[in-house]
Amino acid sequence: MMDARQFFGHGCGFVDISLLAAALLSEQTLIWTLDKKFEVLAAELNKAYRPTLHA
Predict the structure, then answer these.
(1) Is residue 37 situated within a structural domain?
(2) CA-CA distance, 5 to 43, in Å (whole number)?
(3) What is the pLDDT of residues 4-55, one digit of tens each?
(4) How far is C-alpha 11 from the chain's CA centre?
(5) Alpha carbon distance 13, 54 (integer Å)
(6) How many Å apart are CA 44 and CA 49, to the nearest integer?
(7) What pTM was estimated for this model as a whole?
(8) Given this model, what pLDDT does residue 24 score?
(9) What does the chain look like in DSSP terms, one character per residue?
(10) Residue 54's pLDDT is what?
(11) pLDDT of 6
């Protein structure tokens, strides 16, 4: 799954990609981050945690 995508140029480093790879290995793991570029990449792979904000 990871090798089928082009991650170069997304602004994510080695640690970000390593965390994403680890999350992809687990069905229950989601990524919660304040890094907008990393959040977009995680969302593309359905691994972004987006909490519901109360108004």
Answers:
(1) yes
(2) 14
(3) 566 666 677 888 888 999 999 999 999 999 999 999 999 999 999 998 888 7
(4) 12
(5) 32
(6) 12
(7) 0.75
(8) 93
(9) --TTS--TTSS--HHHHHHHHHHHH-SS--B--S-HHHHHHHHHTT-B--PPPP-
(10) 81
(11) 63
Token duo for residue 37:
């570029």
Q: Residues 6 or more apart from 19 whose CB is under 8 A from it?
A: 31
Quote the number of domains for the chain. Answer: 1
Residue 23 is assigned to a structural domain of this protein? yes
Would you say residue 2 has pLDDT above 70? no
Instruction: Please give the residue range of the domain that contains residue 4.
Output: 1-50
Residue 55 covered by a domain: no
The residue type found at 26 is S
Residue identified by tokens 């970000």 is 16
**Does residue 40 form part of some domain?**
yes
Distance CA 55, CA 36 (A): 22
